Amino acid sequence: MTAPAPIRVSRDPFASKSLLLSSTSGAAALRASTIFGRALIIGKIEHAHVKLLTDLRSNERFALKALMGNPRFNQQLNKTKLEIVSEAENGCDIFNDLKDRFLNFKKNKYMESIEQFQKLAKAQAPKFMVIACADSRVCPSNILGFQPGEAFMIRNVANLVPPFESGPSETNAALEFAVNSLEVEHILVIGHSCCGGIRALMSMQDDTTTSFIKSWVVVGKNARIKTKAAASDPCFDQQCRHCEKESLNHSLLNLLTYPWIEEKVANGKVFVHGGYYDFIDCSFEKWTLDYREIKLARNGKVAVDNKMFWC
Fold this sequence. Notes:
single chain, alpha/beta, 6-stranded mixed beta sheet
């Protein structure tokens, strides 16, 4: 007896799933039909489903071709492509610019002062601890020309110094390291004009809403209260300007709440200074906290001397 031809099933997932049976005799065909009857029925149903899917895809391709023939569609597509390319190029340009700046620094500063940088690689001994605002317009190194190794810095919103009892923060952690480990001689707190943190403090509402900014700038609430009480000018901008300096002096007083800072200030080993940078007219005010006068007055008010104005 001749063996029946093999059953051929296509591996193409989008092709018909119908089973193709062939036999050299009608009996073999009948047996195959009996045995595979269910498969043949399912195959016909799946074939119909696949044909419908193929028709839908064909219609989608037709619709897409029709849409692509629309000038407005082509213009929008080209515009989107250009925007994507432009964004990618801008990202590259930004970091290419930073790369050029770094290589310029390496060539013109690092290599020319390589002995100094090698010393700094072993240890640092800065004279200054600087607390400044995180504002991008008021970089202390740019304004006051601090060179590598000259100033240990911490920057935060509104250049605030929380009192000792407020607990740990990145600001007092930096202070502890600078004063106790690096043994800096000067602590300089720098405020500035048009401070967004101070504006947030002055416009803060006495409600239950919370945010990271509000939770931080509330450190300066006493400066806000004092500014509101002393405000003779109803102009909000002028009140903010007054609070920028008031908050700065409160931060200087808060420094004295740290026992290890007050001890060194009292012994003349550390000096506390305030600075105010006005970038509208590019001027700088500097003053030094008068510790002895503050202790004599015993009224919690700031006393300063050695005032300077640079313009």
